[in-house]
Amino acid sequence: MSAAGVPPPEGVPPSTFAVSPSTFAQVLADNLGHADSGFTFVQEDGREHFVSWAELSREALRRGRRLLRSGLRRGERIALIVPEQREFVLSFLGAVSVGVVPVPMYPPMSLGRLDAYREDAAGILRAAGARALLVSRSLADLLAVEGLRVVVPEEFFAEPLVGSAPGAEAILPEDVMFLQFTSGSTAAPKGVRVTHANVLANCSAIISALRLERGRDRGVSWLPMYHDMGLVGFVLAPLVARCPVTFLPTLRFALSPGLWLETVSRHRASVTFAPNFGLALALKHTSAQEVERLDLSCLRVVGCGAEPNHPETLRTFAAHFAAAGLRPGTVVPCYGMAEATLAISFGEIGVPLAPDVIQKEPYHASGLARPAAAEVPGPRVAFVPCGRPIAGHRILIVDDAGNVLPERHIGEVVLQGPSVAAGYHGDAEATRRSFTAGGLRTGDCGYLAEGVLHVTSRKKDLLIINGRNHDPQTVEWAAAEVPGLREGNAVAFTRQGRATEEVVIVAELRGGDAATVARQVRGHIQARLSLPVADVLLLAPGELPKTSSGKVRRSRTRQRYLEGTLPQPSPRTLTEERP
Predict the structure, then answer these.
(1) Strand order from edge to edge, sheet including 388-389
(2) Which of 78, 196, 449, 495 could pair with 23 as two cysteines, CB 3.0-4.6 Å apart?
């Protein structure tokens, strides 16, 4: 049995699951005796720095003592804004090793919006109740906050330990291991209290779902470590499994998306993950000639999660990279969220993607996911299967009153199991609403079909027009098919009209005449979805509100639209006047 009491799947060597620690500090202690493999950090200049499991643990334990020496104690929070991956991992693990609670935070995305970034960062620091902030030298002056100790990790941890540090207090499984702030795509970011027991349960389930084997599997990741998929999926779970990982800097991927799969090919990785937009970027920036130079036959899993999965993106990605040896069934959709530590469900490895095609009318009118027979004409909708719940967990679909719904009825997704976090830090009311006796109310809508989860939308984001439900991402994906819009940079929401709610689209203009593009968007959505669009507002690239992980912020965009505080379009980007 694993640390979380989850049995290994049939056919997976028991040695892969020889996990007995009850806290992550014990994982670090256990890894002190293993120098055979570890993490490889690719630097910004392309050089690679290897750190073994033993070295990671030794340095983490040293940094933990340094934190105690500075006056921090078990349970107190220390925020991390550290873009350099090796420094982040060592500092994060150093805090964890002595019970200090790290709070990963995102660095500024650009130099153009520093005032807004400072305001957001100050809000998270206040909400977390952080006593100290570890921050890179380039950001130290920018983020000086009154009453908060700001330290640069390269300088702070370079100081020798003089004298003895206070002894670390005992760490318990139910202690908070770190605070993971939500992305803020539907509301203000909230700090999720993730315990040691949560992390070990989720890591064990991830290892099981991915069938990770020591000596066989290797990961590659460009995912930001302040995000739960990058942190839990590619730092913490591999540390438990002792599965080596090569980390490509997130910024290098953003500037040159082709580096991701080049790194996979060169390091012979078997597991890698990306959100839907990451697959789309790799598709866009890897030509047929470049694909021929790759060898992706090493890959067992290309996981896709963290945002709604577009069936066409996944299908096209698999087809495009098949010429590089990517096997059918390698692209594996998954679903998760910070409130569940990370993973909730995984698709089946080795099974080619088959979207669930359902009848459009009963779906929109009655919330029923009736299969659409190929021989029967009529409008239909397709959803990507997100797989079955991770081992030791259960997924329910419930109505607004919490009653469990039958299969193929759309309702709210609820998760039960040991990965469900301990609530939100300092927010008892939000904790009460989401962390219920019946399980975690995810805020996502979906349905089960033969036990497989299909996520349809965020509950708060549903577009309700004339009593019929429409998913915002379906409208956004349709809008992105119009030339002139930036793919993945559109938001659909509603405003109050004269008789009913009306659809509004705010998107970033890639090129062309804005008025013409706006008319094309209206016409395309009307023809494609039979949905009238009341207004199309086109913004300059980079102006659409987004989360730290690159997801569009629908609620924030809607709020700013209604307030009239979105960037005013130039004459080239004017649409018809709003009523």
Answers:
(1) 48-52, 38-42, 245-247, 219-221, 271-274, 301-304, 331-336, 343-346, 388-389
(2) 196
